[in-house]
Amino acid sequence: MATVELKNVSKSYGTVEVLRDINLELEQGEFVVFVGPSGCGKSTLLRMIAGLEDITGGELRIDGQPMNDVLPAKRGIAMVFQSYALYPHMTVFENMAFGLEQARLNKAEIRERVEKAAKMLQIEAFLDRKPKQLSGGQRQRVAIGRAITCDPRVFLFDEPLSNLDAALRVDTRLEIASLGKRLPDTTMVYVTHDQVEAMTLADRIVVLNGGIVEQVGTPMELYERPASQFVAGFIGSPRMNFLNGTVAAAHGAETYGIRPEHISLSPDAGDWRGRVILTERLGSDTFVHVEVDGVGPVNVRIEGRSEVHANDEVHLTPDPASVHLFDAKGRPIPG
Amino acid sequence: MKPPLWQSIGFYILVGVIVLQALFPFYYAILTSLEDGQALFEVNYLPRALNLANYQAMLSGGVFGKQILNSVFVATVVVILSLFLAVTAAYALSRIRFRGRGLLLLTVLSVSMFPQIAVLSGLFEVIRYFGLFNSLWSLVFSYMIFTLPFTVWVLTTFMRNLPIEIEEAAIMDGASSFTIIRRVFLPLMWPAMVTTGLLAFIHAWNEFLFALTFLSTDSQRTVPVAIALISGRSEFEIPWGNIMAASVIVTLPLVALVLVFQRKIVSGLTAGAVKG
Ligand SMILES: Nc1ncnc2c1ncn2[C@@H]1O[C@H](COP(=O)(O)OP(=O)(O)O)[C@@H](O)[C@H]1O
Ligand SMILES: [Mg+2]
Q: Where is each ABC transporter domain found (chain A) (predicted)?
């Protein structure tokens, strides 16, 4: 059953339309990620589900009930903000208890719920501290804990990792993923501009661009069958190579797309001949940037080490089964 | 690393000079207030006698007690009204988008640009028109013209630095507007309110020109004017002892307030430290 349903939802600020005709159905217990470039309206969409922004068109339903005019606190939703938004003057315990106090639970139950959430997130030791005495990662957990105590039907995250350093980001990402598994009935909606976060966390990804939904699907569907050139370029790292000109024209397309991992490189034979401009060695992979004669710059990913060096002459062969073709409007041409 | 000796000495000499220049006038006022009669006119820098006659004279003399109460009344009302209006205005100016917000903020600030003397005669007409002449409310009214711009300005800046997400988190937690103000906003605004409130209090407590102009009878006066108008038995005698005693008395409330609130003042001045 769908928990969150959006029907033709749109949002305008005055005459500026930032979201147009959004139709989505999120299943109960699903982990859904909204991903898209900065300014595409992800946060706005999330905040409309939360009730922090008015819905200027269309309808939002949660568990079948219309929610357009329901107060945020009455929607059965909890939200984790980008800046954590902990109350600086309250202890961790008070932060987590605040929402429960507003719901007029009795003291014993509040204590029980807060301690349960604190245990789950391993923040029991900090319950008496103020937010400023915590590290970034610990604050993040408190923010999640504050949301868990309210026992929401839907859990919203707005770029929760963007204030953490790179190493912590990976750890916290794993924790959020396991949180999703431990709360199997809670629907998670997670906003990010980072496609790696989207790919690793999501059951389903919603790709937004310029206020419209480009594609909805599982990570692998998006990777293998992108519904537009935008999605093809946005999902996958390193980025898909897009080639115009004769290569594309030979296939009757405007743009010829091939992912760096779907090209093989050989020193002596292949479809394309080119010269290596630059290599990036990551240990597990090597990215080779090649200027291909008559085609243009192409990025190739090679697993493990590679002995190619700048200025070497190399031959490339794209895997024909993994080619994506797009027309002038960026729509895929079935191959 | 220890700095060389001459640097330490230089540093402490400099500190000494600054402290001396700040505190000596007040110290001398205390000294003078404790002396009587002829002893006043002998220059001395250490207390010779402990004579409270001047204090007795001031406090039992009748109107001075009333005048202190006048000052307390005016300053307190000014602080309460300014803070109330400034907090509500700051909320609107920092949180609600409306046309002309920037211009309004600049206008508010530019009000405090005019020298008191420039608005004095116009203000006098206004006060006469409202029938406030010789009433303490004339001072409340006129002081707010000067305290409001800076309280509004400071609190607006402070409130802008409070992340809006904290407020939204409280909304998500189901807090009513009143709860948000009481449990989230006021505790966070408290240092800024103490600081601006104290500055408004000091301004109202020290103000002289309006107090001299808008009040005409002794029993209505506030302390700065009252002290300036203390006169001796004859035209040719200035009762320095009494004046100094009165000055010391009116300084004490300010010192007490600053001491009580000092920790909040420091955190108010380093505003923005509220971030997460
Ligand atoms: N209060 C507002 N008034 C006008 N435009 C806004 C407002 N809030 C956001 N926008 C616009 O809406 C668009 C989407 O914003 P947002 O949802 O924050 O993007 P994202 O989270 O995807 O980066 C942006 O172009 C932004 O400029
Ligand atoms: Mg955003």
A: 4-235
Q: What is the pTM of this model?
A: 0.80
Same domain flag for A268 and A291: yes
**Domain stop point among A233, A255, A277:** A233
Torsion of CA A43, A45, A47, A51, to 10 degrees: 180
Check CB contact under 8 Å for A82 and B165: yes
| Interface membership of B179 toward A (CB under 8 Å) | yes
The parent domain of residue A196 ranges over 4-233
Q: What is the CA radius of gyration of chain B?
A: 23
B173-221: per-residue pLDDT in tens? 999 988 998 899 888 888 889 989 999 999 999 999 999 999 999 899 9
- Tell me the mean pLDDT in the region A9-35: 95
Distance between Cα A38 and ligand 2 center (Å): 7
The two three-digit tokens of residue B189, written as one number: 């605004």
Last residue of a domain, one of A214, A233, A252: A233
* 0.90 surpassed by complex ipTM: no
Other residues' Cβ atoms within 10 Å of the Cβ of residue A133: 12
Nearest chain B residue (CA) to A90: B184
- Which amino acid is residue A251, in one-letter code? H
Among A78, A81, A102, beta carbon nearest to B179: A102
> Tens digits of per-residue pLDDT, B114-137?
888 888 999 999 999 999 999 999
CA of A206 to the centre of ligand 2 (A): 15
Q: Which residues from A are below 8 Å from B181, CB to CB?
A: none
Provide, as residue numbers in chain A, all residues whose Cβ is less than 8 Å from the Cβ of B163. Answer: 83, 85
Considering the four listed CATH numbers 3.40.50.300, 1.20.1250.20, 3.40.190.10, 1.10.3720.10, the one that applies to the domain covering B61-270 is 1.10.3720.10
* Number of domains into which chain A is organized: 2
- What is d(CA B3, CA B16) in angstroms, rounded to the nearest whole number? 19
A82 lies in a domain?
Answer: yes
Q: Do A52 and B172 touch (CB under 8 A)?
A: yes
Decide if pLDDT at B64 tops 80.
Answer: yes
Cα distance between the two ends of chain B: 35
Contact B29, B247 (CB under 8 A): yes
Over residues A153-190, the pLDDT tens digits come to 999 999 999 888 888 899 899 999 999 999 999 999 99
Verify that A122 and A100 share a domain, yes or no. Answer: yes
How far is it between the farthest Cα atoms of chain B?
73
Using the atom order of ligand 1, give the atom closest to the CA of residue A208: 22
Residue in A closest to B179 by C-alpha: A102
